[in-house]
Design brief:
By secondary structure, the chain is an alpha/beta fold. It has one domain. The chain is built from 10 helices and 10 strands. The chain has a 6-stranded mixed sheet with strand order 7-6-1-2-3-8. Strand 2 and strand 3 form a beta hairpin. It is globular, with a radius of gyration of 18 Å. The chain starts with a strand and ends with a strand. The relative contact order is 0.19.
Length: about 280
């Protein structure tokens, strides 16, 4: 199986990508790049080419906008009177679910600059014919929240953010998080020393690596699906952030059920376990 993780930004220079090959109980980080990959700028064409070669891709970017916001901006008359509550226009259902499960609140796609990234993502998803709920080739992820699910012991207090730029403490934090991930993954997971240095020195590279791991988790049915008809309907419109199941980081090197290209389908059987279907 090949998974691709994309830490998407509005511009290629801040976009990072990671490709991992999985086979025989082992995995190898095949490529990792920020701004460029193998000398090529990470523009939309390059990202599409990389994702089309993957069995599953994970993108750190909103896949949609809040349904009430979509209805409001499509209306000829603004449906909310002065003084009315606007929170439902700012956050998607999946944002609230992520906050409830991890205490990490995603950025608002309607009020924050991440909207620029979301517009770029929308063009990529349309070109790939990828559903917003993650049931196709691409799945929406949030690396910061995923790390809290996989490495909860490293988020028990208010520690230095790994996102801070040009900061020795932030670099040490990224090194700590990388060490935690590699310890859970085990000796079968291989990264070069240069790739480890890249992750330590760039939060974008760390996020791209986590995205590629989450793509594997989604392909194995190790991410959490919308758990109600209402959430499934909203996920098709707003997108759905696929958080990893607790402990799943240690199961990523396990062979996929059925075949090594099984992918998350987005529903659960009567026992609560995730069903799977071919990724493409």
């Amino acid at each position: 199986m090949r998974t691709v993780g994309v830490d998407l930004a509005s511009q290629p220079a801040k976009t990072a990508i990671c490709t991992i090959e999985w086979a025989g109980g082992a995995a190898n980080v095949e490529a990792l790049g920020l701004g460029r990959l193998n000398g090529r700028i990470l523009d939309d064409r390059e990202l599409l080419a990389a994702m089309r070669l993957a069995d599953k891709a994970a993108i750190d970017a909103p896949f949609g906008w809040p349904a009430p916001f979509i209805r409001a901006v499509a209306s000829t008359d603004w449906p909310y009177p002065p003084g009315s509550e606007r929170a439902q226009l700012e956050r998607r259902t999946t944002d609230i679910v992520v906050y409830q499960r991890t205490t990490k609140l995603p950025l608002s796609v309607t009020t924050d600059r991440i909207a620029y990234c979301a517009m770029r993502c929308a063009a990529l998803l349309t070109t790939l014919s990828a559903p917003r709920d993650g049931s196709g080739l691409a799945v929406e992820v949030y690396p910061d929240a995923a790390l809290r699910c996989w490495l909860p012991e490293l988020f028990v207090d208010n520690r230095q953010s790994y996102k801070t730029k040009s900061n020795l403490a932030a670099r040490a934090r990224r090194e700590q998080l990388l060490h935690g991930l590699l310890s859970e993954l085990g000796a079968g997971f291989v990264m070069s020393e240069q790739q480890r240095d890249d992750v330590t020195h760039s939060d974008d590279c760390l996020d791209a690596l986590v995205c590629a791991l989450l793509a594997r988790a989604a392909a194995l049915g190790e991410t959490v699906a919308p758990d109600s008809p209402e959430h499934r309907d909203l996920a098709a419109i707003e997108g759905w952030i696929h958080l990893p199941r607790a402990g799943s980081i240690g199961r990523l090197l396990s062979p996929a059920r059925g075949s090594d290209t099984a992918a998350f389908r987005g529903d659960e059987d009567s026992t609560g376990s995730l069903a799977s279907a071919p990724s493409r």
